[in-house]
Design brief:
four-stranded antiparallel beta sheet, Alpha-Beta Plaits, 28% strand, elongated, nodulation, ATP-binding, single chain, binds adenosine-5'-triphosphate, nucleotide-binding, P-loop_NTPase, six-stranded mixed beta sheet, transport, 308 residues, alpha/beta, Rossmann fold
Amino acid sequence: MNTILKIEGLSHKYSSSWAVRDINLEINQTGVVGLLGSNGAGKSTMMNILCGVLNQTEGNVFINGIDLRKHPLEAKQYIGFLPQQPPVHMDLTVDEYLSFTAELRKIPENKIKAAVGEAKEKCGIAHFSTRLIRNLSGGYRQRVGIAQAIIHKPKLVVMDEPTTGLDPNQLIEARKLIREIASEHTVLLSSHILSEIHLLCREIIMIESGRIIFSDTMDAFNNYAQPQSILLHLENMPAIADILNVKGATRAELLSDKQVRVYFDEDPGFSERLANACVTNGWRLRELNLDKTHLDDIFKQLSTQSHQ
Ligand SMILES: Nc1ncnc2c1ncn2[C@@H]1O[C@H](COP(=O)(O)OP(=O)(O)OP(=O)(O)O)[C@@H](O)[C@H]1O
């Protein structure tokens, strides 16, 4: 099977400055892959290159094994694109617009009606077939945008910040639809909001200043920063000095007469040693919780490292 998306040494320069620098990646499965980066990190530049809207300065992009630069028409059959602003025509009805995009995608004339019907069904807009796009809410316009991106059943659907500007109800609906689309297609979705990526994505690619600074599964991202403190609830609170006697403890902060936060070095055996010390010394352990690192802290940590 061909790799759905392969990027080799991709770089792009606008006049004098590099917006994207030496990006390498491969995507082989369906599901949502998140492209996360702060404003100006290079997400749109990268997406515009992948979708053939912008020619890269250096490097190669292969869609379903086809070199995008050498064979753009062939490669583009396998990509659907939802830009930041859905490319809808306000004065057309949903059917007229989707039929037009199906023609642009070179779907044979006798198959256009079925392709439009299927895309509308998937995106939950069949009941708006004859409505002018200008009379649809933002959330439904977004659905029409998604329908045009999948009308030719591409392997890869690229969505640039697809949830920006939606209200909370529309957001929930849009996420549901994106998950459904991703059960059959590979979706590469950009956002500068970590919680959005966290909710939707199986994999995360973080870019800063045009370079990849993290690329792995969402689980690996969650585990990236190991917890470095433990919250203890003790019935018999000992002296802080006794807690610091446990090998690996670096600091202890008394929160109440029964709660203490203990900081430790990177050491996988520390929580066990601490629990043993509680039992052996009769501190009467009620609870021991590893403090989870907040997602935003991981994001900050990775971004800071990339600037060092
Ligand atoms: N047409 C252009 N000409 C010159 N510089 C550009 C152009 N488009 C983008 N840039 C610059 O390239 C860098 C990357 O921009 P890009 O739009 O790709 O980032 P982004 O991650 O998509 O940001 P945002 O979330 O704000 O859209 C930025 O420094 C931006 O100012």
